[in-house]
Design brief:
four-stranded parallel β-sheet; binds iron/sulfur cluster; binds 2 iron/2 sulfur/6 carbonyl/1 water inorganic cluster; alpha/beta; about 10% strand; disordered N terminus
């Protein structure tokens, strides 16, 4: 299916790159019809983005069903004010047609209202009747308690989105002001989840290379940093569990590291720490409640200790600033705290659909060959952009050809899983992010357009790639603070200590 062209020529996202010197990367956008055969690229050009083809890509669904989704009162991520609900059915549209959750009743035994916690309905609801569960009070209380050390971590996607609330043009990177704002409302330390994204890559890329070399390992490995995707798989495709990377998400790794490594280095009693994650995501509120994410408790033998205590969305964080009358635009930039504050460009691109896999193959290439990745791997163009399913083929010396794929929106994840079950999937590594665009358009981001639009997504995506390109260090394995944690605390990727603190398991 690949068309071969000369080294260095980029045609388009649907074009292919072919290199004579041992490395080739090919990329295609696939149009997939259910679990059937891939369509040709020409047919895919007719449109198979994150939406089903019968809808256009601007986000204006023809509403087919009036009514509303059910929300469990115990849902840790979303809630609804029924007084505001106008029964327009937009939440059903996004849940059913983009995420293929509502109305997909092939369920195992769990007796629950089905929700994968992605929070996309909070973006589609025209009256903001559906919102995230408000956890701001927990954070105010921690900040007011003199016995607590309150530590924030900030996800990759927030810094290119929160500026929307303060008059910055869409896609402005306000990282320094975001850190300053957290200090202004009283956080004692500010860590960067991007640092933990580099740590995730060290573990995940090591795991991937290990599996590539092991003929008994599952053929495909899935990335697992999106908790909505993890929950979706546990509900609908539990047979995929062996294919899952066991590496925790960056949020979860950071949580474990703050109460162990960081606490030890800074001489802080871990039981005094309140660990707050600021995320673009409603599902991260759910992730932090997962029982198995209690590595610090195991490490310190302190049952009940949680790796992450509270997750705030970008919107909640912004609300807190407004309550304190803090204008983000007027703050002087501040830096993250050291030890857990430096990130490579690879850590930054996690925010975009395709970013996790691109970061992973940069380091996997190095781990497999001992050589730094060439430019075509460093900028893996075929996995950029808003197409629902993207594909690339790498030629890694010593390993051979490796096909990879990226899905955004759970409707597209479903197609990938159905293809795997039908024996039609050639991919060794697959990234899935539940939200179209990835976390830059997560369920906790500012409602800068309702429903969310691709023009907003594109600006944020562009901003993230621009940061990556501007970084001196763009590879996770070259991050000096990541090298330091392995030298001084973890040993090496997949070590016993790393397995205890940085890896997890899944529950069908
Ligand atoms: Fe994401 Fe993440 S990239 S899921 O969207 O992997 O929420 O921004 O923080 O954990 O890093 C969200 C964003 C993260 C995590 C990272 C991953
Ligand atoms: Fe959360 Fe990102 Fe997954 Fe959306 S894609 S549910 S924001 S982790």
């Amino acid at each position: 299916m690949a068309e071969k062209v000369k080294k260095g020529i980029t045609l388009s996202r649907r074009s292919f790159l072919k290199f004579a010197g041992g490395l080739s990367v090919t990329g295609a956008v696939l149009g997939l019809a259910g679990c059937g055969k891939p369509l040709t690229p020409e047919k895919a050009a007719g449109g198979d983005g994150w939406l089903p083809t019968q809808y256009d890509n601007r986000g204006d669904f023809p509403t087919q069903v009036k009514g509303r989704i059910s929300i469990d009162p115990k849902n840790p991520s979303i809630t609804r004010d029924d007084q505001k609900c106008i029964l327009c059915g937009q939440c059903i549209e996004v849940c059913q047609n983009v995420q293929t959750v509502y109305g997909y009743y092939k369920l195992p035994i769990k007796n629950e209202t089905i929700c994968v916690n992605c929070g996309q309905c909070t973006h589609w609801c025209p009256t903001a009747a559906i919102t995230e569960v408000d956890d701001t009070q927990k954070v105010w209380e921690a900040l007011a308690d003199p016995d607590k050390i309150v530590i924030a971590q900030t996800a990759p996607a927030i810094r290119v989105a929160i500026g929307d609330d303060y008059g910055f043009p869409i896609g402005t990177n306000v990282e320094g002001k975001m850190v300053a704002a957290l200090r202004e409302i009283g956080f004692d330390y500010v860590a960067d989840t991007n640092w933990a994204a580099d740590l995730t890559i060290m573990e995940e890329a090591s795991e991937h290379v290990h599996r590539l070399k092991d003929p008994t390992a599952p053929y495909t490995m899935f990335t697992t940093c999106c908790p909505a995707w993890v929950k979706f798989m546990e509900y609908y495709y539990p047979e995929m569990i062996p294919k899952y990377s066991t590496s925790k998400s960056p949020q979860a790794m950071m949580g474990a590291m703050i109460k162990t490594y960081f606490a030890e280095k800074k001489g802080i009693d871990p039981s005094k720490i309140v660990s707050v994650a600021v995320m673009p995501c409603a599902a991260k509120k759910y992730e932090c409640t997962r029982e198995e994410l209690n590595s610090a408790a195991k490490y310190h033998n302190k049952p009940g200790m949680r790796d992450i205590d509270v997750v705030l969305t970008t919107r909640e964080f912004s609300e807190m600033l407004k309550m304190k009358k803090i204008d983000l635009a007027k703050l002087q930039d501040s830096d993250f705290d050291n030890l857990v504050g430096e990130a490579s460009g690879a850590g930054y691109i996690f925010a975009n659909s395709g970013g996790v896999i691109e970061a992973a193959v940069r380091t996997a290439y190095f781990l497999a060959t001992g050589e730094q990745p060439p430019a075509v791997v460093l900028d893996l163009q075929p996995v950029h952009g808003l197409q629902g399913i993207k594909e690339a083929t790498l030629e890694i010396p010593g390993i051979g050809e490796e096909k990879i794929a990226v899905a955004q929106g759970l409707n597209n994840a479903r197609k990938i899983c159905d293809m795997i079950n039908a024996g039609q999937a050639p991919w060794r590594l697959v990234e899935v992010m539940a939200c179209p665009g990835g976390c830059i358009s997560g369920g906790g981001q500012p409602r800068s357009s309702v429903p969310p639009q691709d023009r907003v997504r594109e600006k944020r995506i562009e901003a993230v790639y621009k940061i990556d390109k501007s970084m001196r260090i763009r590879l996770s394995h070259e991050n000096p603070e990541i090298k330091k944690i392995y030298t001084e605390f973890l040993g090496q990727p997949l070590s016993e200590e790393a397995e205890l603190l940085l890896h997890t398991h899944y529950v069908p």
